[in-house]
Amino acid sequence: MAGRANPPEGMPQGGGDDEFGSTVFDESFVRRARLQEYSAQERLADHEHPVRPLPASARAGGSSLKQGIVLFALVVLAFGAALYMGVTGPYEQPAAQRSQPLRATIVPLVPQGTVPGGTPDALFAAGPAADFGTGAAGVTLPRSTATRDFSASQVLAALTLGKEYVVASAIDARVVTGEATAPVRNLLVDDQRARFDRSLRAASGADSGASAGPTAGPAAPPATAWLVRLDPEHAALADPGVRVRGTMTVSQQGRDVLEVTTDHVFVYAVRSADAADAAGETRESALFTVRRQVRLQIGREDLPRQRLSVEHVVLQAGPLPCSAVSADRLRPVLAGERVAQDEATGIDPYADRPSGSPVCGTLAEAAQPRPAG
Q1: In whole angstroms, how far apart are CA 277 and each of 115, 236, 331?
Q2: Residue 358 in contact with residue 314, Cβ under 8 Å?
C-alpha cells in the first residue's frame, strides 16, 4: 500500500509542521517560560493538571545576576556624581566679603600757649611718655584664645597682622616722614587698596593746588586716616625712635570674620624741616602726640594672604591747629610756636579715650612735657 501522499493542490496554506519551521526554541526561551509540562509519570499521578507554573527564580536564571550588577553600577555612578558635584560645585567657598568704606574722625588738639622745646631725650624724660616702649617693641599682643569658629593660632595670626598694621602705619619712619606708603598698602584687601590710592591722589592734588580729577565711588577719606604722615616740607623726625603704649583686643564678628581693635598713644620728637635756624643754630625739638584708635577686620580667607580691612579710625593729635581737621599731611605746631585758639574742651590724649568729637579740641597741659629750665 502506497504511503500517504500530498493532495494534488499541495498542502493547505498555513498548515502542516512547516508552519513553525523557522522558530527556534533555545534554552534561554525555555527557562523563561511561565508554565512547564508534567512528565508522563507525573501526569499519571495528577491527571487534572497537565502543566505547572515555573518558579520565578527558575525563570530568571542568570538574568537576575546581570540585573544586580547593572543596578550596583548605577548606584556607584550616582554616588560618584553626587560626590563630584559636592566637591567642585559652585558652593565650595563662601562669597568674598567686600569691605566697607573707611570711616574716620580726626581731632586736632590746639596747644595752650607756647609749645615747649628741647632735645628729644630731655623732652621724653620730662613728659608722660617717659616709660613708654620704643618702636615695634612697644606694641604688645594680648594672650590669644580660641573663639567659637577660630582656633587660638588663627586668633594669634589676626593679632599679629593687626600689630603689623600699627607698626607700618604709625611707627615706620619711612611712612611717617612721607617717603613710603607701600608698607601700609600691601596689608590692605584689594578693594581697600583702590580707596587708599584715591586718598593719596587727592592728597597730591591738594598739595600741588591742582584738581585730583573725578573719582569713582564714595569720597576718599584723608590720607591721615590710613596712616600717620608728617608734611615733609614742614616737619621732620628729630628721633626715629617713636614712643608707644596701648592695647589690642580681638573678637569674632560673624562666622568667618575676626575684628581687631587697637588703641595706642604714639609720641614723636619732631623739629622743623630746616635743621638750623637763620643763625645756624640747631632748632629745638618738640613732642607731637597722637592717640589713635583703629578697628580692623580680617576675614578667614585673608589670614593666609596677610590682608586686612580698616573699618574705623579715630585720631586725636597735637599740638595741631584746628585747620588740620581734614589734613592729608600733618603739620605740628613746633617748639617755640603758638596758635590762636577758640574756646574748646581740653583733651589729654594720654588719658582721654578717643570719642570722635569735638571737631577741634585743646591739648591739655598735662600732655605737654615740662623740661627743666
Answers
A1: 17, 14, 18
A2: no
Task: Give the separation between CA 265 and CA 247, rounded to whole angstroms.
Answer: 9
Which of 22-36, 92-106, 118-132, 325-339 is modeled with the greatest confidence? 118-132
Tens digits of residue pLDDT in 9-46? 555 554 555 555 555 555 655 555 555 665 666 666 65
Residue 319, preceding bond cis, omega within 30 degrees? yes
Rounded Cα distance between 361 and 354, Å, is: 12
Q: Which three cell numbers stand for residue 214?
A: 573725578
CA of residue 301 relative to chain centroid, distance? 6
Residue the block writes with cell 519551521: 21
**pTM for the complete prediction?**
0.71
Distance from chain centroid for Cα 193: 13
Which string of DSSP letters, residue by residue, matches 255-288? TTEEEEEEEEEEEEEEEESSSB-TTSPBPPBEEE
Contacts of 275 (CB under 8 A, 6+ apart): 236, 282, 283
Residue 225 has pLDDT above 60, yes or no: yes
Tell me: the pLDDT tens digits for 232-262?
999 999 999 999 999 999 999 989 999 999 9
Q: What is the phi/psi pair of residue 148, to 5°?
A: -60, -40
The answer to whether the CB of 271 falls within 8 A of the CB of 285 is yes
Residue 281 and residue 141: Cα distance in Å, rounded? 42
Contact 268, 231 (CB under 8 A): no
H-helix or E-strand containing 360? none
How many whole angstroms separate alpha carbon 149 and alpha carbon 255? 6
C-alpha cell, 310? 580698616
